[in-house]
Write a structure and sequence with these properties.
Length: 137
Amino acid sequence: MRSLIYLLIGIFFGITMFKSEAASWFRIYEMFKFDAFHMYGIIGTAVVLGVLIVQVIKRFKIKSFYGEPIEFQPKEKSVPRYIIGGFIFGLGWALAGACPGPMFTLVGAGYLPILIVIAGAVAGTWMYGLLRDKLPH
């Protein structure tokens, strides 16, 4: 039953991404050229909602779907790793025209060439898993 709920949430997310044009290569291109506010508005809204939702979870001690408490672990403060990681993520986003969420939305919308990008993302994740112990964190 939970799998069905997750599937329905994923379908709703995909439809929202597609209808809001957040999965549009042209909108992403506009964003990286600083020609339009559209994507910055979507991302900014997501950040604000994320902060608010995390605060609600912390204050009201909301539990997960499985009834377990949701715990937030403090992160290491390492500016260079965030700058380097953000640069790599942004470069991949600019080259592919999509970040991970919209990649699957584009497959669902019938844009099958994005499967090449998904294969590259999976290969990169696999490669990171192999090299993780040798990389600076």
